[in-house]
Automatic annotation (TrEMBL):
Top-rank lineage group of the source organism: Bacteria
Name of the protein described by the UniProt record: DUF2911 domain-containing protein
Organism (species): Fibrella rubiginis
Gene3D superfamilies: Tetratricopeptide repeat domain
Amino acid sequence: MIMQLNALGRLALGLGLLLLSWPVKAQLSLPEPSPPATIQQKIGFTDLTITYSRPAVKGRTVFGGLVPFGKLWRTGASDATILKTTDPVVLGGKPLSAGSYSLFTIPTQSAWTIILNRHVGGHGLDGYDEKNDVLRFTVKPDSSARFYESFTIEVQDMVRNRGMIYLNWANTSVHFPIVSNADERITAEILERINGKKEDKPGLYYQAALYYFDNEKDTKQALGWATKAVALKPAFNYLHLQAKLLARSGDYKGAIAAARHSAAVAQQEKFTDYVTLNNQLIAEWEKR
């Protein structure tokens, strides 16, 4: 009898252990329904990182359905979407200090409110408090160029020190600009080296003038630097830039003379591309 009880006890214990282990063994390893994603982009000197999750449409009505109009949205799924920038930037026309922020939105049919918030440790809307908002701005939604099954954040349209952040899902696209502080840093270095340290170098004057020309900054100042570069070293590329700055300032006679000088030097040094460029500009300016 005792032996039978011992056997039954061992059987019961074995069944108990089997039942305890069953839920663990029954769990399957499945892909996340809203997989996480991270995008990284350098804008000027600034590193931008956006971490978010990507829910899918799955045949549902997204905006005005799954994402109600007029309600705060986590702008993704799972944990809050996080935007991190290593330098101060201008986002949607408003200044934003370097740091990490959660990104929320309030979509409506006619406008979206974009929100950056200090609280970054939340899941979804957990921990969100309006008093921690650091900036808000509104943008108009557009129809996307294609259908986006998964929610997608992109950084596109990169030009110099700026780009555009796109929020795309289903047939809707929202975008807003991000501008780095590269221009402030470059301009400060130029002025410090030229005015502060008094570096009298033709290459520095040329680079400073070219930066101002390309970014459509103070033409008079740029022309002064280009003229100093030419005086120290009449290189064909220095003369070419001087010619373009003279034309931008309205002095086409001076621009033509500088372009002809540039073309002659370029011809001597066998830089035929610059000869062609100068001749094209001369033909254009002679019509003014």
